[in-house]
Amino acid sequence: MRNYNLRRMPKGKPIAKAPTQKNLFGEHVPKPRAQYEAALERADKRQNASRAARARWLKRTIPKNVSYVLPVETALVFEEAKSCFVYGHFVAAIILAASFIEHWMTSNLQQSGHHKEASRGLAAAIRFARRTHLLDPIVLDQADRLRLIRNPFVHLKEFDHEHTITQRAGRYRTDPWTLSERDAQEALIAMYAVAAYWFR
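^ thats the sequence. predicted structure below, dont judge the formating
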């Protein structure tokens, strides 16, 4: 049997332990926390009320007692879209909600034998579903509006493009942050509407 020698640590001085501080009574003083930990804790406290309000809105909008049979990736996209909204990541919620709709429509088109239409992207899938009456027109309107809102975040558009958040904020006379939260709400409503309806 061959012997294998373990690599030996080089000889030298032992590693010194980090010094601990004691108070006048000889008691150990706890090490102060890193600044970023305290900053995160303060931010959490400041944002807790608004997060709770968004969580309440989400609970009223998307029931928890409904289950879907989805691929793992699609299920993760669905859950993370909701989580991003609660934590105030509105652009991420918009993009993920649109991604879920594309996953869902592509999957349904493939299962119903429309492989060509399933491979052409969300806009083509919506057009085909509208033309062939595969989905409720109101749901398709919601999905298409979400697609238009999402596009400037995914594909850089020129400044004066009508669907950029800058142009829409100007039209609606509101700030981009407030508008992005409203857009994220619409995105989640569209996502749930698509998930709740099956192709005809």
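The chain has eight helices and no strands.
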